[in-house]
Amino acid sequence: MTVPIINCAETYQRDVTNLCARVGGLLLQHGAECALVESVTRRLGLALGLNGVEMALMANGFTLSTFRQGCCDTTVRRNQDRGINMHVVTEVQRTMLLAEEGKLDAAGVTARLDAITPFRYPRWLVSVMVGLSCAAFARLGLLARGAEANFATYLITFLASGVAMQVRQYLASLHFNPLVNFAAAAFIATSIAAQGLIHDWVDSPKVAMSACVLLFVPGFPLINAMSDMVKGYINTGISRGVMAVLLLLACCTGIVLAMTVWNAWTWL
Fold first, then answer.
1. Of 158, 163, 256, 262, which is closest to residue 207 (Cα–Cα)?
2. How many CB atoms lie within 10 A of CB 51?
3. In this predicted model, what pLDDT tens digit does every residue of 5-38 receive, in sequence order?
């Protein structure tokens, strides 16, 4: 039986290809735009001794090919969304920059990537800050309407958006579909805010019910979608844009359902 001879150069190229694919996957999974994903992946491969790196990005995956000393290595990876996390994106970029400066080799890059842990704020802190931001939007809404400051409106907006954010984070931890997540949390937020109208607790229920659901606006996906399309990644941009629109529709479904249940049609 003949034992195949493994070329060390090919083994090294395969290892670097896997590193580049890992970097591209981390960036895509945590919300980086396509131009950044391709740039960081290519620069890392070149820094680690490859002659070329080519990447084809798709809606739910990517294909990566590397070239070194006349050899080509290709891999296909699936992209699983893990939520927007700029801490991971920033750490991956720093790893690539250290490799370009010659401070990290392939083993060093692997060790640094292994050490990256997504940083997340405590759930209660996120809910409090989201509640305060929505209450601030309620304040702006009252000022735009020329109405006087109303503490009850701010309070119910704060409670509705804070509780909805808690529900949203809890459902996300259980790996619910994002569309179900948005619809359920929007229903909760609108239901809580509707109590201000039903029990006559607030003078401006329309402002409270509209401000408490602003946390569901998918701003980051919409910006990424537009950025991708402007920079030539049409397919990926369209898929991200469609997903953002679906999230908005799910949010609207939850809002309309809550207004139907409580018969609180303040937006009309």
1. 158
2. 13
3. 445 567 899 999 999 999 999 999 998 899 999 9
Distance CA 130, CA 252 (A): 19
**Side-chain half-sphere CA neighbours of 86 within 13 A:** 2
**Residue 64: C-alpha distances to residues 38, 44, 208 (Å):** 10, 13, 49
Give the integer Cα–Cα distance in Å for 113 and 168. Answer: 29
Residues 6+ apart with CB under 8 A from 240: 59, 221, 224, 225, 228
pLDDT tens track for 107-154: 999 999 999 988 888 999 999 999 999 999 998 888 877 777 688 899
Asked if 164 and 183 touch (Cβ cutoff 8 Å), the reply is no
Instruction: Give the pLDDT of residue 45.
Output: 94
In the numeric block, the tokens 């699983």 are attached to 80
**pTM for this model (two decimals):** 0.85
Residue 147: its H or E element? none
